[in-house]
Design brief:
CATH architecture of the largest domain: 3-Layer(aba) Sandwich
Largest sheet: 5 strands, parallel
Order of helices and strands: EEHHEHEHEHEHEH
CATH superfamily of the largest domain: HAD superfamily/HAD-like
Strand content: 5-15%
């Protein structure tokens, strides 16, 4: 089975670093994390100019995406490593990050957290293209933190196969089934994590 996992909001804490850069331009911007971000479309304290400056800095950085904090627990990281060794599981990390050497930075980030892991990272121009990737790769299960993406992917692979990782910014949406983390999601993909 081919499995697709989102990166930002599922594996990586993009929000914390985005706010930290914003604070460099505007010290009145509060600190937020993926766990405290209430709405994905509202960047608290940012002006339009702050957002533009922050994205410009991110797009020009050779290390921004390689230095994000992890949202993955140790069991999540171990289950990803184990799943990558299972012959009948194709594991894909799909993201719509912009910037400099995004694919390479993302791969470096995964390798720094999961020793011996060689991730398959796919970068799409727009998040809504993930449904096209799911169709092209014959994805059987998908994990997202964005309800709209999960819904679009669910139209391709089946609603009950497109999972949502609960976050504050998606708590009002109930179109997709929830999982508590990556490890639980991979168990649903048939990865036996209880092997000694």
């Amino acid at each position: 089975m081919n499995v697709m996992i989102d990166v930002d909001g599922v594996c990586a804490d993009f929000v914390t670093n985005f706010y930290a850069i914003g604070q460099e331009f505007n010290p009145s911007i509060p600190l937020r994390t993926t766990h405290t971000q209430a709405d994905w479309s509202i960047w608290e304290g940012f002006t339009r100019e702050d957002i533009q400056k922050t994205w410009l800095r991110i797009k020009q950085s050779p290390t921004f995406w390689a230095n994000l904090n992890s949202l993955m627990s140790w069991p999540d990281r171990a289950s990803i490593r184990f799943a990558s060794l299972v012959p009948n599981i194709g594991l894909y990390f799909v993201t719509s990050r912009p910037g400099y050497n995004v694919k390479q930075q993302t791969e470096v980030w995964f390798r720094s957290l999961i020793p011996g892991f060689d991730p398959t990272v796919l970068v799409v121009e727009r998040a809504h293209h993930k449904a096209d990737i799911a169709k092209a790769l014959d994805i059987g299960l998908s994990l997202e933190d964005n309800e709209e993406n999960a819904h679009d992917i669910g139209k391709v692979i089946g609603r009950n196969n497109s999972y949502l990782l609960p976050r504050q910014y998606n708590r009002k949406h109930k179109q997709s089934p929830d999982v508590s983390g990556i490890m639980e999601f991979l168990l649903k993909a048939g990865v036996d994590l209880n092997v000694p």
